[in-house]
Each structure stands twice: as structure tokens, then as C-alpha cells.
Amino acid sequence: IVLFFLLMSVQLCCNTTILSEPTLNVVNVSWSHPGLDTTTTHALALETSMHTILICIALQPKLCQTVQETLVHAVRGWFLVTLQHLVWNYNISYTVDNTEVTTITVSPTPYLPFGGRLALTGDPGELRVTWQTAARPPEDPTNANNTASEPLIGVQYLPATSSRPPDSRSTADVLTQAGDTTVLQQRDFTTCRSSLGKSTTKKKAAFQWFSPKSGQFHHTTVLRGLKPGKYFLRYGGRYGWSDWQPVYSHAVEYTPTGDDGREEFNLFVIGDVGVGVGAPLRHPRLPTALAASPRTQNTGQSWNCVLRQLENSVKASPQNSMVLHNGDMAYAFGHPLLWASFLSLIEPVANAVPYMVSLGNHDYLGSEGECGRYTATAFPMPPFRGSSVQHRSWYKLHLKPNLVLIVLNTDLPIAKTTEQYKWLRATLGKLRPPQNVSDVGKREGHLWIVVAGHKPLYTSVNPKLLPDPNSPKKMRAAFEHLLISNKVDLALWSHVHNYERTCTLVGNQQCGKGGVMHVVIGTGGGHLHKFTDRAPKWSAKRLLSHGHLKLTVNETGLSGTLHRCDTNRVLDSWTLTAGG
Question: Is the pTM of this model over 0.85?
């Protein structure tokens, strides 16, 4: 039976009220007090058996140096904060100037879904839906909840014949697809093998916020047979559902009778984001012990700026948009709670459009030895093979008749004898030369080929900031010739925390017509990496600013614009044309 929030009202020296919205695992905390001034600090402390989250509220930011700071919505002497996605029992303590005023306990249900995200599978008319719960929903053999027609875990969806979601009309046409569950437990993270074959063991102390009894529960399912157009969708199951939300099916492999390539398509690219200090109150998951860590302080509020800007951008045209997170997502440092925080933060974007990823060094290995287990489970990319360390994390998507995206795993070797190199060579060989392309969909015109991976082949950052086994020089020697000989148009990289665009390169670091343009987009929120004093001849643009890259493909060409996150100002723009 679902446990809803405990609704309580407490009146001590001030008036404090705990309200709830149980279907969303939301707690609204409101109180009245003489008010905030420049010397008074108010704080909410959320405590569980696993961790403590302390949220500080003050007019002077310096009063909140070691805890999360947030703004408070104040109306006529009342203050209101909203805490979302709470999945454990919490004791909420309210203090004024370090003096406790009251403590209230809330008990959210652990079975409600959060962190929903969409992904493409590489097959026509399919859409993968993945989400998380804090516990495994139990079977209900007696059907005490009278929900036998609903799956224990799954997705419900139907074509959108109205602008209103199904809750406000008949649900007779709702389709249901059951889901599968993957449980990640502490033992899945404590030992793994790096890409160099070295064994890495993680101390158990690092997993103090990870419940070894319940683990982390990720659920996924694939919707098949979708027709182009708008659908309404919700995920969850018998013990609680997400809100109905509009989504658009994306035909991954086009058909001769489908899209002719003239319709505009947008690919939004970010990289190196993280969940650092200053997590917004709507997703209060950062433990204070980590908030004081220098490893999390480098991201500040920049990642929040980028994600909110990205949310506004994709929701302006969800029917023809997709996101590529080009590695280094959560910077979770082996802490599953930070991964859960990241999933909640990207949810407004990831449940609106497909959210595709490549693996970065902090996702695949990093210093904490995750070996890609969490990433492969939370972000099942095509072809999906589970959360094994040997998960093949490279793939191809034929997004439009005139656009192909190839994603590589640069934390695995791409030398001539490796599986990834052989796959890349075969995949590119099928796309080029042009006479092979004309047989696919019987289409005329230029096929834009975009290759993406985390670690760059070109960067003019100080080499001392790149202590990677696969240095840019070694990676160029390994497979740059494949990109050039198969006439790849654009290569997208991250890893280096800045923005850099090259000329079109034809080999030997030389610019020339018909070459490959390389763009480093590592501006998702991490501390920025300074360039060398003098730019190389092949470097066409260098910028130190946080933001996202928007790629647009239409009948006239492939264009890109870099948008600064705080002002949305376009800092760089360029266009590639066929044959140019």
C-alpha cells in the first residue's frame, strides 16, 4: 500500500506548515517569521539514516558557505520552499540562527518514479523510456489496490488526438508496455577493471549514501510501432505514475516514403556538466559532506544555468530536437546519490526529447572506478546490453535522410586491431562514397555525417591539463584517417572545459576544402580550462564561456551556434555547405 506524506501543522515561536503533493513526492514547507535580514539565517535540515541535506536561506550568501543556498519565495511574511523527489523518510528540522524551532517527519513512498528520460534505440518507430525508483515495487497478489489492469512497472501511452492529456478524457485507447528492472548495489561498484586492464577497488566508505539492502532501481522499456507524431506518455506502475507528458516519436531509420530531409532538425550538444555546490532546492540531494568537498566546488551554479537554458531551448521545438550529452555527466565520484540528483536535474529535458549520451572518463572510469556501470544502466544506448563493464558503448543513429550521428567511446582503445575501430571503419564505409548513399531511401543530396566522442583529437589547451592515455596526438594517429577518407563533415568532442572550433582539416593539421571540422564543446558547467597563449593555425575560434551548442540540419546545410547560458547570446556561428 502506498505510503503518502504525513501532513502536519506545527506552531511554536513561529508558524510552520508541512504540506504535500504525494503523487509527485513533493513537500512544500512554509512558515512565517519576523523575516529575513542581512544577519539572520534560516535553515532546513533534511536527515535520514544515510545522509543529511542542509539547505541554508539568507540574504547574505557568505552566511551559507558550507551548505546549499537557495532563494525563498516570500509573500506577506510567509516563506515557501519546495522539496521534490524525496524518496526516503526525512526528519525536517527548521532553525533560525542555529536555534532549532521545530522538527517534522515526512514519509514519501519509495515506489514513485523520478528521473525519467527518453532515448532512441536505432530501430524505426521505437522509443526507450527509463526511470528510477528508490525501492522495488512489491507484488500485490491480493490486488488490494484494485489495479490488476496496470503493470507493476511499465509505461502507458497513446496518440495525442487532443491537446489535453488522457486524465481529462477517456483512457480506453491507452496502450501499456511492461518494463524491466535493473538493480545496482554496492558490490556492483566496489571492483571493476579499467580500460588498461588494471583492477580498481573502491572502499566501502565512499558508499555511505548507498543503501546496500535496497540498492538503486532503474526501470526501462521500449515502445515499438510508433508512427510519426505526438503522443502522451507516463511511466511508473501500479504504485504511482508520473504526470502525463507530451512526447514526439522520432523515426530513427527513415523510410523511402517518410521524411525527405527538407524538414529542419536540431541537435543540442552539451558536455562536462556535473552536479556541484548550489543544487537548486527543487532537487535537494547533495549531502553537506560533499558540498564542502573541493571536487564538487568547481562546478558552482554554471551547470544549473546550462541545464535551464537547454530546457527552454528543446521545449521550443520538441518535435524535431534531440540532446547529445557528450560525456562527463554527473561527476558523481562513485556516489549513487549524486547520480540520482543528476537524473532529477535533467528530467525536464530528458523526458521531453531523446537524451543520448557518450561515455566520458568520469562516467566510464575516473578516479572512483565506476567503469561505466551506472551510466550503462541509467542511459541504455543502442545496442543495449545491460550494465556490464563490457557494454558496447558506441553506436550509430540515422536521424534524418540527410543526417547520421556516430558516437564513439574514447575511453576504450580505437586502434586498428580493436572492435571499435573495425566497427567505425565498416560503418563509415557503408555511408561513403555517395553512390552507396543514394541506395538508402532513394534520396539525392548530401549526407551529413557527424562523429562524436568525449576526448578530442584537437585542442589548444595546456597539455598538462590532459593526463589521458589517449592523448589527442595518439587519437589522431589511430583513426583520424578514417574520418578524412570517408568524408566526415563534423567531429564533436568535450573533455576539455572550453569551446574551440577548428578549420576544416584535411590531415597533418592542415586546413583545406572538404575536410573535417572539429568542435570541442566542454562548456556544460565544469571549471573552464584556459587556452595556450598563441592559437594554432588550425584553431578558428576559442571561447571561455558556459553554454550549449545547437546544430541545425536543413536543406541548405549544417549550421552551428554556441549559446551563452546566462544571456543566451550567440557567441559563435558557422555553416557547412555540401562540397564546401
Answer: no
